[in-house]
Specification:
With 355 residues, this protein is α+β, with helices and mostly antiparallel strands. It has 2 domains: 169 residues, no CATH class; 147 residues, no CATH class. α3 crosses α4 and α8 crosses α9. The chain is globular and about 60 Å long. The C terminus is likely disordered.
């Protein structure tokens, strides 16, 4: 048994080990770890525009990805049911297109994800137990994939990515104590809210998490300016796409169809809107913590309830939020420290220290 992955043939090691150790044959319905968040997957799908046949190398160049990363994205798109692979290559699922035209793409992806045995196993457990500690889900993932060797930080990423799919597709919700509960809202209401999965943000965050940007303020302002020019979403780089998600989440832009987006406010009103937001809790406590020297990961976790995200992700989000805060005057610019090199005491070199 061989597989072709990113142009390299490899064996299904897990299948062989499973058979040799437990005499267990491959299951028709397999369990899969999600490696990319649902937002990134949907951005990849939107980048395909109206094309049905996917030229892998051209698709990768369009997204600015290496070949291996492109195949990783295609794998996740396949798990979501959005693309299919056959002997003739990769194509967009015709059924997915039909659901998209009906405004029901979220419903279709939800159905596709339920075929992942790991997802169905978690949902069955929740039906029996009503709730599940996040730590128990972590143990379940490790037990389900005993031959995946990864550091604890990587397993934390797998866990949060897996939860990201379940939360965004509204299978589950996560409370402030990191307990996982099944969604109890009416199914039709859930499907209507998903629509075509026009998602914003990133990471495994509870649905009621306050806004935390994933881009810098300067990029967000630049993307807002591009909106008036009718720029295609597929033409944006990774940083600009993150800014677009931020602007969508705070209601500054909206989709206009055919992969385009339009601005619904200007920069002046955007600044005022964000200033009003940042002058309230939990942002005021966040600024206070930063002034007191609390590091980004801890300040983000404490004030925004994002303990479940990996430390590196919390640090990055904390820096981005601080960047917006500085740009809008809520915290000071980084301090300037003056250093006098030996034997050159008459010269001063300014070092920019990030506060």
């Amino acid at each position: 048994m061989l597989r072709l992955s990113a142009g390299i043939y490899d064996t299904y090691n897990d299948v062989f080990k499973d058979f040799l150790l437990y005499e267990r044959l491959p299951e028709r319905s397999q369990a899969h770890l999600f490696r990319l968040g649902l937002v990134a997957v949907m951005q990849g799908f939107r980048a395909l525009g109206g094309q049905n046949r996917i030229e892998v190398e051209a698709f990768g160049r369009q997204l600015g990805k290496q070949l291996g990363s492109t195949y990783n994205l295609l794998r996740e798109l396949r798990l979501a049911g959005l693309v299919v692979h056959s002997s003739t290559g990769w194509t967009v699922s015709e059924v997915a297109r039909q659901y998209e035209h009906q405004g029901r793409l979220g419903e279709f992806v939800r159905q596709s994800v339920l075929r992942n045995q790991l997802v169905s196993e978690v949902l069955v457990r929740l039906e029996r137990q009503a709730s599940l500690p996040k730590s128990a889900l972590s143990e379940l993932l490790r037990a389900r994939f005993p031959f995946v060797e990864a550091k604890d930080e990587v397993w934390a990423t797998y866990l949060n990515t897996f939860l990201d799919w379940l939360v965004r597709l509204r299978f589950v919700r996560v409370d402030a104590d990191d307990n996982i509960h099944p969604e109890t809202n009416d199914k039709q209401e859930i499907l209507a809210s998903l629509g075509n999965l026009n998602l914003a943000g990133r990471g495994s965050r509870p649905s009621d998490t306050p806004f935390v940007p994933s881009s810098s303020w300067s990029v967000a302002v630049r993307v807002l300016g591009m909106a008036a020019e009718g720029v295609l979403l597929s033409e944006l780089g990774k940083a600009a796409q993150a800014a677009l998600c931020d602007l969508r989440r705070i209601g500054a832009v909206q989709a206009a169809g055919a992969g385009r987006f339009i601005a619904v406010t200007d920069r002046v009103n955007l600044e005022q809107r964000v200033k009003n937001l940042f002058a309230s809790e939990p942002y005021t406590s966040y600024w206070k913590d930063l002034r007191a020297g609390v590091i980004y990961p801890d300040a983000i976790a404490t004030n925004f309830g994002l303990h479940g995200l990996a430390p590196g992700t919390r640090k990055d989000l904390g820096k981005k939020l601080a960047n917006w805060g500085r740009a809008l005057g809520f915290i000071q610019e980084p301090r300037l420290a003056f250093v006098h090199p030996p034997k050159l005491l008459d010269q001063q070199t300014e070092l920019l220290i990030d506060s």
